[in-house]
Design goal:
By secondary structure, the chain is mainly α. It folds into 2 domains: 4-99, no CATH class; 143-339, no CATH class. It contains 11 helices and no strands. It is globular. The mean pLDDT is 86.
Length: 344
C-alpha cells in the first residue's frame, strides 16, 4: 500500500508539471506583452494550434521526439526542462515543509521565480506580471496566512527603523531628481518631456508608511475593540509590508549609488520590484540576506560573461532568485552563524 507521502508527492509532481507547462506560456508571451489566455497553445514555428494530446506535460515532448507534429521543427528543450524543474521543485518543497498551508504561498513564489529567471536570462527584463503581481499576492498571502512569519518584536522594530531610513533616502533621491530635472527636463525620442518622478513609487511609500504607523500606534485599539482574532493577520501583513519596503528599497538605494558612481543605470527596475516581492514573502531579514548573497554568484557569472562576450551587463534577477532560495532554506542558520562570529 502506498504511503501518504508517496501519494501526495506524486500528486504534487503532476501538479507541478502542469504548472510548469503554464509557466512556459508565461515565459514565451509576457516579454512580448501577449496574453497567456488567448490564443490557445500553438506551435511557435508554424503557429498552428497544438492538439490537447500533444500538449501533455513531459510526456508529449518525449513521445513526439522533441519535434513538432505539424511542422517537424525541433521543440526547444527548455519546455521540457521547465516542466520537470517545476514538478521536482513542488515535490521538494513538500518534502521539506510537509503538507502545510505555508506551501501555497511558497509554491506561488517559486513559480514566479522560475518565470523571472528564464525571462531575465533571455531578455534581460523581469515582467511586471511576475514582480508586481508577486508582491501583491505576497501581501495578500501574509494577511491570510499569519504562519508565514514568526513574530519577533525586536526584529520588527529594527526592520521598521531600516524601512524609515530607506524611505527617507528614496524621498531625498526623488527631491534631487525634481530639482535636477526642473532645470534641465529630460526628453524622449519624440522630443517630449519625460516624467521626472515616479508618482506610483511615492504613492506606495506613503501607503506603506501610513499602514505601518497605524499598526505601530493603533494596535491596542483593535485589541480593545474585541477584534483580537484579526491581530495576527494585521501583524503578519505589517511584517510583509516592512519586508516589501526594505527588500525593494535596499536594491533601489544600491541602484542610486551605482548610478552615481558609474554614471549609468546599474540596477534595473525589475530587480527592485523582484526584491520587493521577496521581502513581502520572506520578511526584511531574509530579503537583505538575499541581497547580499546574490552578488557572490552574480560576480562569478559576470566574470564568465565578460570573458565570453566582453559584455559587462548581466541578468541579475536569477541571482537574486538564487540568493532568496538560499535564504528561505538556510537563512536563519546563516544569520545565526554571522551573529555568533562565524561560529556555530
Amino acid at each position: 500500500m502506498l504511503s501518504e507521502t508517496t501519494v501526495i508527492g506524486s500528486f504534487l509532481f503532476v501538479l507541478g508539471a502542469c504548472v510548469g507547462s503554464f509557466l512556459n506560456v508565461c515565459i514565451v508571451r509576457w516579454p512580448h506583452e501577449k496574453s497567456v489566455v488567448k490564443p490557445r497553445s500553438h506551435c511557435p514555428k508554424c503557429q498552428k494550434p497544438i492538439a490537447w494530446s500533444d500538449n501533455i506535460p513531459l510526456f508529449s515532448y518525449i513521445l513526439l521526439g522533441a519535434k513538432s507534429r505539424c511542422c517537424h521543427q525541433r521543440i526547444p528543450f527548455r519546455y521540457f526542462f521547465v516542466e520537470l524543474l517545476t514538478a521536482c521543485a513542488f515535490v521538494g518543497f513538500y518534502l521539506y515543509y510537509g503538507l502545510d498551508i505555508i506551501l501555497i504561498p511558497y509554491l506561488f513564489m517559486l513559480s514566479c521565480f522560475i518565470v523571472a529567471t528564464f525571462v531575465d536570462f533571455e531578455h534581460r527584463l523581469i515582467p511586471d506580471e511576475v514582480s508586481v503581481g508577486g508582491m501583491v499576492f505576497g501581501l495578500v498571502f501574509a494577511a491570510l496566512i499569519p504562519s508565514m512569519f514568526t513574530v519577533d518584536q525586536q526584529a520588527v522594530e529594527v526592520g521598521r527603523l531600516i524601512m524609515r531610513i530607506i524611505t527617507t533616502l528614496i524621498l531625498l533621491d526623488c527631491l534631487v531628481s525634481v530639482i535636477r530635472y526642473k532645470k534641465n527636463p529630460p526628453k524622449n525620442e519624440d522630443g517630449e518631456e519625460e516624467e521626472y518622478i515616479d508618482f506610483w513609487l511615492l504613492g506606495i511609500i506613503c501607503a506603506a508608511t501610513i499602514f505601518d504607523w497605524l499598526v505601530e500606534n493603533k494596535l491596542s485599539v483593535i485589541q480593545q475593540s474585541g477584534l483580537k482574532s484579526i491581530i495576527p493577520h494585521v501583524v503578519s501583513l505589517d511584517i510583509a509590508v516592512i519586508g516589501f519596503m526594505v527588500g525593494g528599497g535596499s536594491i533601489y538605494a544600491m541602484g542610486v549609488l551605482g548610478d552615481f558612481l558609474f554614471k549609468k543605470e546599474s540596477m534595473g527596475g525589475g530587480d527592485v520590484k523582484l526584491m520587493a516581492m521577496v521581502g513581502a514573502f520572506l520578511g526584511w531579514k531574509l530579503a537583505i540576506l538575499s541581497f547580499f548573497i546574490a552578488p557572490f554568484f552574480g560576480a562569478i557569472y559576470g566574470i564568465y560573461e565578460k570573458i565570453r562576450t566582453k559584455d559587462t551587463v548581466i541578468a541579475y534577477g536569477p541571482f537574486l532568485v538564487l540568493g532568496s532560495l538560499i535564504s528561505l532554506f538556510w537563512g536563519e542558520l546563516i544569520i545565526h552563524w554571522i551573529i555568533n562570529g562565524y561560529r556555530f
